[in-house]
Amino acid sequence: RLVLALVEDRTRERRVEAVRRDFVANVSHELKTPVGAIRLLSEAVHEAADDPEAVKRFANRMLTESDRLSRLVQQVIELSRLQGDDPPDSPAPVPLDHVIEVAIDTSAIDAASKRISIVSSGTRGLQVLGSDEQITAAVANLVANAVAYSEPDSTVLVATKQTDGVVEISVVDQGIGIPNREIDRIFERFYRVDPARHRSTGGTGLGLSIVKHVAATHGGDIRVWSAEGQGSTFTLTLPHHSFNGIAGRTY
Ligand code: ADP
To answer: Which of 139, 183, 199, 208 is least surrounded by CB atoms within 10 angstroms?
Structure first.
């Protein structure tokens, strides 16, 4: 039995190592694109020195690429922390109203630039047990996606609900939607639905894998409903934490 346990341990170690190697290879590949683009664009700026319009255009693209690069680095750090061997933050009661407020604030500038209004509704005063930072990152990723994949002048709704010991946070958009055949893959690391479809959003393909990890480490789950051209609803479910038996208040 001891030998069997050792063999199982080795197999598990090898599998973990393979996943890690795969991740590093993917990250390196993803980093190469924006780094290469920034290098080419800086050469172009040099060559176009006497054409101020062209310099401005190249500089703007450099800004977009470097934003993408910093988002990628930040998400890789988040994801590797979630997958790493670090002990999880000791769970504490997390007030959802504050989580949602921060998540909405994070996307406020992007939303305003497309005249998208983000509204919240549902049950106030709910709490879950876990890591404030991780749950905020998860909800912020869902809101950022809802804004990124919506047309201008639309609305994004963040709704909370409490049922049977669980709390549901739904992020509803009226955006481009996700084709049925792609739904199962969007939670994979680096997976993006037809990148050409929304090149301008400059996503990383890591946001939803972060959400999935946060849901799993908190004993919850993430579900999605979507129809192409109509919109998507992502629902994050987390175990409810009641304090002094006081439930949330519905508005
Ligand atoms: P990304 O950084 O590309 O947004 P994610 O992991 O967050 O990466 O999402 C993976 C893919 O799922 C996206 O590239 C996009 O194609 C699709 N997706 C995610 N959220 C939405 C949404 N609200 N509406 C439409 N498509 C979405």
So the answer is: 199
Nearest CA to ligand 1 atom 14: 192
Average pLDDT of 206-214? 93
- ipTM of predicted complex: 0.98
Ligand 1 pocket, residue 146 CB under 6 Å: yes
Rounded Cα gap, residues 56 and 100, in angstroms: 37
Rounded CA-CA distance 199/101 in Å is 28
- Out of 208, 209, 212, mutate this one to test ligand 1's pocket (max ligand atoms within 8 Å of CB): namely 208
Residue 121: per-residue pLDDT: 96
For 247, the 3-state DSSP assignment is coil
Which of 33, 78, 145, 183 maximizes ligand 1 atoms within 8 Å of its Cβ, making it the mutation to test the pocket? Answer: 145
Single pTM value for the model = 0.84
